[in-house]
């Protein structure tokens, strides 16, 4: 059992739970491999649009982050395989700056995710999943929930096509994050054209999907990213689905694990 998506105390919107505590709990839960994938620092010149500006790790914390992983690899060498990773944001218009981050930190990476949390509209950048209210106000601005889903899937598609250098992550994070508030703000249809397009491109490029359990415990979501009907198709297409708890607390480990495809 492996968990390919775990956050740490270096996440400003996460918890102070120590990285060693994640390792202890992972071992207790029967996890044999764990990737720490903290939100990489945001690209130069990008202003975090969230109210608390707390979306990503600070540059100052990066050396300690990787040093701690190195130490934990030693401490738990016998019981847990620990991989050094990052969850890297794909932001339209910041491809060059993101490539620079990847070129700098890539040599330290053993695993990584490419995720979309920020969407570009005509009046700047917005965080998709900061809060339900934020989601709704963004939807209203751009013409409704369907328009927001469409923009999100299009941005994920662009992330897959983007040239981000030789350290570009091989796994696409939570490809249906637009569904985080789906029970409160449903879209009118399933966007099959869009998600099929994403799956085909993921397969064509030999990439993997983050099979993310965090949505299960979100009251307005209650499903994995991607949900079963997409995960089934992905599996049939031979796309590797890599479980990720996306835990921001020790208690969040194994989130949604029981809801995965068998
Ligand atoms: Zn986070
Ligand atoms: Zn994420």
Automatic annotation (TrEMBL):
It holds the Pfam family PHP. Residues 3-207 form the PHP domain. Keywords: Amino-acid biosynthesis, Histidine biosynthesis, Hydrolase. SUPFAM superfamilies: PHP domain-like (SSF89550). Pathway: Amino-acid biosynthesis; L-histidine biosynthesis; L-histidine from 5-phospho-alpha-D-ribose 1-diphosphate: step 8/9. Its EC number is 3.1.3.15. GO terms for molecular function: histidinol-phosphatase activity. Belongs to the PHP hydrolase family. HisK subfamily. NCBIfam families: hisJ_fam, PRK08123.1. This is Histidinol-phosphatase. It comes from Shouchella miscanthi. The gene is hisJ.
């Amino acid at each position: 059992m492996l968990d390919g998506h775990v956050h740490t105390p270096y996440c400003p919107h996460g918890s102070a739970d120590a990285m060693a505590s994640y390792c202890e709990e992972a071992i207790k839960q029967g996890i044999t491999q764990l990737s720490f994938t903290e939100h990489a620092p945001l690209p130069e010149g990008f202003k975090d649009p969230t109210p608390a500006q707390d979306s990503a790790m600070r540059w100052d914390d990066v050396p300690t982050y990787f040093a701690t992983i190195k130490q934990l690899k030693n401490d738990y060498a016998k019981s847990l395989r620990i991989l050094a990773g990052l969850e890297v944001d794909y932001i339209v218009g910041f491809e060059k700056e993101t490539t620079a981050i990847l070129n700098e930190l890539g040599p330290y990476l053993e695993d990584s995710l490419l995720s979309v949390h920020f969407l570009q509209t005509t009046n700047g950048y917005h965080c998709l999943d900061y809060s339900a209210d934020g989601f709704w106000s963004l939807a209203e601005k751009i013409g409704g929930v369907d328009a927001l889903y469409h923009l999100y899937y299009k941005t994920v598609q662009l992330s897959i096509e983007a040239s981000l250098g030789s350290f570009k992550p091989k796994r696409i994070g939570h490809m249906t994050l637009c569904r985080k508030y789906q029970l409160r703000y449903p879209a009118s249809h399933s966007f099959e054209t869009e998600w099929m397009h994403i799956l085909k491109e993921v397969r064509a490029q030999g990439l993997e999907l983050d099979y993310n359990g965090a949505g299960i415990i979100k009251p307005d979501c209650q499903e994995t990213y991607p949900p079963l009907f997409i995960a089934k198709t992905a599996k049939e297409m031979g796309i590797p689905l890599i479980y990720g708890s996306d835990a921001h607390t020790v208690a969040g480990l194994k989130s949604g694990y029981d809801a995965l495809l068998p």
